Amino acid sequence: MLTLIGLGLHGFEGISLRGLETARRADKIFLEVYTSPTIIDMNKLQNKLGKSVSILRREDIEEKDTLLSEAEGKEIALICPGDPLIATTHINLVIEARKKGVETRVLHAASIYTAAIGESGLHIYKFGRMATLPIPSDFLPFSVYECIEENKKRGLHTILLLECDVEREERLSVGEALKTLLRMEAERKGNIINKKQTIIILSGLESAEGFKDAGIMEDIMYKEFPALPTAMIIPGRLHFTERAAFESFFHLKNPCT
Amino acid sequence: MLTLIGLGLHGFEGISLRGLETARRADKIFLEVYTSPTIIDMNKLQNKLGKSVSILRREDIEEKDTLLSEAEGKEIALICPGDPLIATTHINLVIEARKKGVETRVLHAASIYTAAIGESGLHIYKFGRMATLPIPSDFLPFSVYECIEENKKRGLHTILLLECDVEREERLSVGEALKTLLRMEAERKGNIINKKQTIIILSGLESAEGFKDAGIMEDIMYKEFPALPTAMIIPGRLHFTERAAFESFFHLKNPCT
């Protein structure tokens, strides 16, 4: 049996009691550290679990099959950041496990997706398709622009995650993300992205360096945000209760959407 | 300070370690039991917390202001099912607290939204707007039909939650939900809902009665599912990796979308 155990948003303390108990009973515990830059104190973690924990890198899952050969006939716990199956890598892992006849189950935990939506005060029912803004390359990510466009046309909000490559220690900053959006607007001229538009930034939720801010794009662009997983929300049409939340959560009376 | 502490999907064991510690340190602990039919063993809960816990009903929050008058100058913990701010009632509570000068914070937990998407094996990036299917009344919920229509036209998946009124002990069954969808199709004739379409049902995730199934609508319609929170997914276009997940998770080779 392979059990994927969610770690939630930040640090080891986001694990559920059910997750903790399951990990304690496992024959072997792995910690996956490559899909999100969660900072884990390994001593604390191992003390809390009463067992040693092996760190698993991307290549250990994608190439070496380390985990699945251990899981045949044993209880293996794989602790992963966030809610485990939101990362497609983990879906593939479950598919591979089942091919080998290894049973799997998932113990869920907080995900940046619902946490960021909740902390924005906007209604989850009014969010359209989400996207991840990639670290800049030679190509502009127009699929992200189209995602915002589709949502805006329907009055829906868009949540964007900012890419973070943990193993290469690279992450997209808020400033770079906004510049990318404005460059795409300059090419496409769809009147989708506007410097005067209010956006919401949510960074490092549940960590000591956590940060939540909203403002017009051209102001947010030059602010510094801590180097932690970051989500950005581009609001669509606001319901009056969402306006009330905006004012209460961000002290902004007239967000410009 | 008012801290909203998420309980995750089922029972007390879904709380995070951070949530548990915070509740233990609080001057007073409330448990909210009206937004989701979570079954909590109150003795176990109070033993684990080492404190008595007061049950809060909807009217206590919406009318009586019980919670907020307690929270002035004290540490109050409110334990809520799922991820706390996904329920709009809780967003309003935070707004009211802030008006009274009561600081608030949120400790996140697993939400049915990401848990159900994860367990379906479909990619979260390909989900459009979500909706809740209400318990039948005199009116057909055409806004839900339109939500599925918008998503389908863009090839996106739709997640629907089935309404559950905890205080009136009423819930929408899978069979009723599907009949409602077919009645709307019969009126609108948008070729959106089809009896031969494959759908996914996820019920009571992380509970002993939990259930996960997929099949064509006319077969699923007559199955019995346990009386627990239920999510339904109507898939849009499938990516080949999503097809692989479908086969692995539900033993269905050719889902009809």
Based on secondary structure, the structural category of chain A is: alpha/beta
Strand neighbour order, sheet with most strands of chain A: 3-2-4-1-5
End-to-end separation of chain A in angstroms reads 48 Å
- Most extensive interface: A-B, 57 and 58 residues
Please state the CA-atom Rg of chain A, rounded to the nearest Å: 20 Å
- CATH names the topology of the largest domain in chain A as Methyltransferase, Cobalt-precorrin-4 Transmethylase, Domain 2
Q: Identify the CATH class of the largest domain in chain A.
A: Alpha Beta
List the quaternary state of the chains: homodimer
How does the major sheet of chain A shape up?
5 strands, parallel
Helix content of chain A: 25-40%
- CATH homology group of the largest domain in chain A: Tetrapyrrole methylase, C-terminal domain
Under the CATH scheme, which architecture of the largest domain in chain A would be assigned?
Answer: 2-Layer Sandwich
Question: Per DSSP, what share of the residues of chain A sits in E-state strands of 2 or more residues?
Answer: 15-25%
- The outline of chain A comes out as elongated
Mean pLDDT of chain A: 92
Number of helices of chain A: 10
The H-and-E topology of chain A, N to C, reads as EHEHEHHEHEHEHEEEHEEHEH
Count of folded domains of chain A? 2
Low-confidence spans of chain A: pLDDT under 50, at least 5 residues? none
- The tally of strands of chain A reads 12
